[in-house]
């Protein structure tokens, strides 16, 4: 009914008040909403579409990719973090609010946000009363500690992020809960309700890291280690009823979850059903036909579905900004990209407009990126446009590119190879667009497609990059948690250069960038930290290590039935699943 | 007595000679090629197929000229002709206009006509050269197997059986993905083309090899071969001068029928993304691109599809005609 009210407001704006009232009354009297039901285009961006508190019904997800793991310790995919909040709770979690407001951390299991010691090295939380597991037993601070400690067991439970482990135990001294039953002494539980974290040095993002579902409680007697993904023991509003990997998942209510001590999760539907397919076009068809409410993977619709949705069901479409950026890195190990001027030549020579069109225009492809920090990360500065990308309307700056080529000692241009994952069609199209625009300044680009699933051992492997001569690597990146640290440390810090599984493709090894990042991390005031990340980003751009392409947007489907829909920066601009309900 | 007779003939010669010549002509021995050509000329369908093939070859050779005539180039992007919201060409029928006679590609706005014309180069090149590779391998090995027999025949025949059972498409896909980017002075698309030609040709030779072997087996027992042998002709002479000329007909037929299959294989490989590399145009990769736009821009799928269809059909019709012409006993 809320959607009717929304469209009523829109109609009123268009026609006379009396006529609008009449129309709306008729619509309400008719009681159905076939043409208006979906609401408005972008109704779920920066505001809540179909706000409602109606409980019951089945929420239906459809996806083409199963979770990397449903085990909170092992998961890393963004949509899985989002989904895991149905059956897991954290000490602190994100605000159930649209857009940037979602980034504000609220107490979840804890009674309040952290009590931080003067020196920023001790974080203390007290648990709420009446917290229960799915079998009715109380959730204790030891359970929270054990859930976090599982991060140390990388041999058995690999795959997930290890930020807490790296901060608390930077030298990896503790062996993990399976090998050392004594427990980690950097996390203290003086009683069943209190938990303390002792940091070797301050980290301004520590609470952001704790909010990641990776740090959900796990009860030791329910820890089935590598089989935990099949049935994670629930501390949240829903529990696993049945799960067939790559096929289906059904969640039902956890009757021991108490609504009164969890203000962050609306938990409206009675059941949550996930159907997994293999073909994204079929997924889009099911969404459009109303067989499912939303896409589990949240990566946006395919070309075909996008067209149908935008042409015929625009009211069911949201087009939020995501935290992801599409970019090209220049590995400095491959000549001539060891020379800053050759890198700059490629940056100036790139036609951003053409890449944007190749990705699906401003709607599906997103805005032209002027620097490396995406809009959802604090510190993003749209005015930091050192290469005049927006000033030039996204067109290549041929004159500047030629000038840089001369300075680089290659006035006639050069040849190089661009690596792109074949699993992402938009990436391949962007590569072709770059190839065409760089050719005009004399940079001959050969495109080499690689299997996206093997990325970490191909473009992430320094020896392979050198052997194959990948002077350019086209990739996408988004923050693990919404801060400059969660986004940039892997890409920019010299300590993250690895022989294999490397993400610092450009091989940035600049003491000033390292120092800038470390200072920003130690800064406890988020605003000052954001300012510092902005400076680091500026320096990264000045070094010409990266060619930012676009800040990605997605075309997201929102069914007529969905209520409380909004895109949240806490989940890279995707919908906050825990708030959704159905009519 | 002879003189008058002679005189008589000489006197009449002016009248008789044309008639005689005509008679001579009527009973003149005609070569196999000539007979075939006469038959082929009467086969209208084959002639149409043949002329389309000829036209395609000309189009492929003169692709740059055609592009220059239309004022377009295959890799120039016209993003202003693309609707940014849907990535499809502005205007009806995939953006067909005076400038772009077959419209433009979705996403990039490249001219489809010139890409089809340049795509013909890839198809024709791979189709012909790989058939050529197959013919060379097939003729040599088939002749050896048929003529020498014994263990050599057994060996070659088993190899042919093995190759025919080999999953060649899967093999090419995996081979191309491990090929280096630079090979024998070629790079990128060049390497891909070379690999495709060699591998498609290599897997095609058993088809030719079997035919040749069968022919040689029956020919080597013929009297004229016996005669040559008893006159002391060497093996090389017999194979080269006596056998090979008789193999030209079946080889020609199978080669013409093999080309369209090869063109299809190339299109399939490009469709699967292991054919030529971007931005080189190929019909297969155009089709593969078009899959995402089959509803919103069906023209983009129809055009390369029709190009492949016409080419393969023309080659097949022409091949059938050639076979009928060379081998009248063969039943259709």
UniProtKB/TrEMBL annotation, chain A:
Pfam family, one: SBP_bac_5
Endpoints of the signal sequence: 1-29
Superkingdom of source: Bacteria
Domain called Solute-binding protein family: residue spans: 105-496
Membrane-spanning intervals of the chain: none
InterPro entries: Peptide/Ni-bd (IPR030678), SBP_5 (IPR039424), SBP_5_dom (IPR000914)
Keywords: Signal
Name the UniProt record assigns to this protein: ABC transporter substrate-binding protein
Organism expressing this protein natively: Streptomyces spirodelae
UniProtKB/TrEMBL annotation, chain B:
Pfam families, alphabetized: BPD_transp_1, OppC_N
Keyword field contains DNA-binding: no
Topology in membrane: Multi-pass membrane protein
Broad class of where this protein is predominantly found: membrane
Subcellular location: Cell membrane
Keyword Cell membrane listed: yes
InterPro entries: BP-dependent_transpt_permease (IPR050366), MetI-like (IPR000515), MetI-like_sf (IPR035906), OppC_N (IPR025966)
Entry keywords, A to Z: Cell membrane, Membrane, Transmembrane, Transmembrane helix, Transport
Chain ranges of the ABC transmembrane type-1 domain: 120-319
Residue intervals passing through the bilayer: 45-69, 124-147, 159-179, 191-212, 243-263, 299-319
PANTHER family for the chain: D,D-DIPEPTIDE TRANSPORT SYSTEM PERMEASE PROTEIN DDPC-RELATED, OLIGOPEPTIDE TRANSPORT SYSTEM PERMEASE PROTEIN APPC
UniProt similarity note: Belongs to the binding-protein-dependent transport system permease family.
Name used for this protein in its record: ABC transporter permease
Protein species of origin: Streptomyces spirodelae
